[in-house]
Write a structure and sequence with these properties.
Shape: globular
Largest sheet: 8 strands, mixed
Strand order of the largest sheet: 3-4-2-5-1-8-9-10
Helix content: 40-55%
Number of strands: 18
Distance between the termini: 55 Å
Radius of gyration: 25 Å
Length: 641
């Protein structure tokens, strides 16, 4: 693909009298909010009446602009033409639930209302509540352009396209995974118009922000492909946070910079976008109008960055946290090792935080310590195979390390297995009923459409995931990419729904013991003597807050406590001896302290390496550097056979 045929400014500037929209998407911690704020500021400075909207659960617009913003549209001080709003996702979800259920209070009895309320606790409802807010701001004639920090995902948009035959479903008063069908009637036209606008290149710009790293770029590639299948084309890409050449004064950081530049060159030659821009890493967090102006002028005017990348920031280096004092190797090792039964370890976190590497390293060290270990990944990128440098199949296979097996859940195979299981169940349900032929055809047609839902993909992966709790002979099962609170809550949906999107009951009814089996698995995951959930993050504001919110969701919604936190990519003290890296390290220490205060759990600390470890020898060596893993080599005498 050829990029840069169109300038970034031409991509984001409005082209008509209608309100136009710019959506920024990307994983937590890549600088999406920074680029969104800089874009909105640049547009406002160019005399466009601009609204900036975020649905990010960890919003930092207030920090970036240095003023309170919150859940109401607020004018930004010292910038003409610019307003902003931070939509609180919890408030939005509750507003959506109340708006949906209020008209039903006079029509339904208490039991029926309770069922609807349970239904509206579906995790899908939270996504739709966020989308509902997008819809509100996509009818904003008072603005020339609306900039969205955090775009709706392909997952969310696919939910909005279900069921495809809205009218038939509304007529029969069935259910959808986003609420009772009767409540969707007044939304139908709005949602369809919103999706039409998203698919209209003349009114909508879809942009991705990522880091100059292979994992971040791979995530963007998958997300862009997912959106492309839904008719939404990506036009703009920003690679943010590359190391400035002037500060890379030793072989360690020179090597890191070379890798980043190679990743940028790959993007320039392979990605099919109309425009691309890059922005360098700064010594501190980007906040304040001067820095935002710098970002905007570099991305949209083609200027060189004017910030002195070697200058000190306002981070108090002397008062920063003592990292060694945060480490608790014995407590971490205790969370990793089994007692009487199999220990289940779950490493979870957003894309690009290094969870696959941490999971594979932990599994390797546990096997080396004498524990029979299985490591399983549900990551669609199948990164585990690259890390081990060996083939990893859909079923557990041995790798070249004693006591260690690995498996990769193939999403397509898992979905096909799930599809067959559910459809077989529907056939059985109607096999002995009088006049069932017509009913069976209608039911099968509905279920086949239902199985196109992204919820079905989650349930299929969960089905396969649950099967690994039945694997005998392992002391430890390590999961790379644990199920989220969102996914686990799908299991708790009411089992007696009779509507269209009845994934909960279909799944629970697929086998006589299925519901009991799910209950047992969740009980195992809730038991700290049997299971340990670990969130992998790195010490910056957004990834820390995303991990904290996800951990709170697991605890509040599913009753699963976080056992420990993995703080990854810690800058080494022995490299980068200049003001730039001194300030970056101080900033990391600040957020390490905040992470410790928020989670109140042991911390596994993992250093930044020049290259990601590949192969068992490098994994073992990396394991010796990670807090808690080196202690495992002394545990063989307590191994549970």
């Amino acid at each position: 693909m050829t990029s840069n045929q169109t300038t970034a400014s031409e991509i984001v500037e409005p082209h008509s009298d209608d309100t136009e929209f710019v959506f920024f998407s990307g994983k937590g911690g890549v600088g999406k909010s920074t680029v969104s704020c800089a874009t909105a500021t640049w547009l406002a400075d160019n005399d466009y009446e601009t609204l900036l909207v975020t649905t990010d659960p960890a919003p930092n617009l207030s920090d970036i602009f240095g003023q309170e913003i919150g859940h109401e549209v607020t004018e930004i001080r010292d910038i003409d033409n610019l307003s902003a709003i931070e939509i609180d996702p919890d408030t939005a979800a509750e507003e959506y639930r109340q708006e949906t259920i209020e008209p039903m209070r006079q029509l339904l009895d208490d039991d029926q209302l309770k069922t609807v309320e349970e239904q509206l606790n579906s995790p899908c409802v939270e996504e739709i509540a966020a989308f509902d807010n997008f819809v509100d701001f996509m009818d904003s004639p008072a603005y020339d352009v609306v900039v969205f920090d955090t775009a709706p995902t392909g997952h969310t948009i696919r939910l909005m396209e279900l069921p495809s035959d809205w009218n038939a479903e509304l007529d029969k008063g069935g259910s959808t995974c986003i609420g009772p069908a009767s409540s969707m009637e007044d939304k139908k036209a709005q949602y369809e118009q919103a999706i039409d606008t998203l698919q209209d290149d003349d009114r909508t710009t879809f942009a991705f922000v990522g880091k100059p790293e292979e994992s971040s770029i791979n995530e963007i590639e998958r997300s862009a492909s997912d959106l492309g299948e839904l008719g939404i084309e990506s036009q703009f890409l920003v690679i943010n946070g590359y190391l400035p050449e002037s500060v890379c004064e030793d072989p360690f950081f020179q090597g890191k910079r070379n890798d980043e530049q190679a990743a940028i060159e790959r993007v320039q030659t392979e990605f099919d976008v109309d425009a691309m821009a890059t922005y360098p890493l700064q010594p501190g967090e980007i906040a304040g109008l001067d820095l935002l102006s710098d970002v905007g002028s570099v991305i949209y005017d083609g200027d060189e960055s004017t910030v002195d990348v070697g200058a000190a920031t306002d981070v108090d280096i002397e008062q920063s946290v003592d990292v060694d004092a945060l480490a608790d190797p014995e407590s971490v090792a205790e969370q990793l090792t089994p007692t009487d039964d199999t220990r289940y370890l779950f490493f979870t976190g957003k894309g690009g935080v290094g969870k696959s590497t941490v999971a594979a390293t932990s599994a390797t060290k546990l096997a080396e310590a004498g524990y029979e270990t299985l490591v399983v990944t549900t990551d669609p990128a199948a990164h585990l195979e690259d890390i081990f440098g060996e083939t990893v199949g859909h079923d557990p296979t041995s790798v070249s390390q004693a006591n260690l097996d690995a498996a990769r859940i193939d999403q397509e195979k898992a979905l096909e297995e799930y599809r067959e299981q559910v459809l077989d169940h529907v056939h059985e349900m109607y096999a002995d009923k009088e006049g069932s032929e017509l009913d069976a055809k209608a039911a099968i047609a509905n279920v086949e459409e239902e199985l196109e839902s992204p919820c079905a993909e989650e349930m299929a992966a969960l089905e396969k995931f649950v099967s690994y709790f039945e694997k005998d002979g392992y002391d430890i099962v390590v999961f790379d990419t644990a199920p989220t609170g969102h996914t686990l809550r799908l299991l708790e949906l009411p089992s007696d729904w009779k509507g269209f999107m009845d994934l909960g009951s279909l799944t629970k009814g697929a086998a006589p013991t299925k519901s009991d089996q799910y209950d047992e698995v969740i009980e195992t995951m809730q038991d700290p003597a049997q299971s340990s959930f670990a969130f992998v993050t790195y010490p910056e504001f957004t990834p820390m807050m995303e991990a904290y919110r996800a951990a709170a969701d697991l605890q509040e919604q599913v009753g699963i406590e976080t056992a420990f936190v993995v703080a990854n990519y810690l800058l080494p003290e022995k490299y980068g001896d200049n003001a730039f890296f001194a300030n970056r390290r101080a900033q990391q220490k600040k957020y390490l302290g905040e992470t410790k205060d928020r989670f109140e759990t042991p911390m596994m600390l993992a250093p930044l390496r020049q290259d990601e470890p590949v192969g068992l020898d490098e994994l073992r060596a990396f394991g010796d550097e990670i807090t808690g893993l080196a202690e495992l080599t002394n545990k063989q005498e307590v191994r549970v056979s």
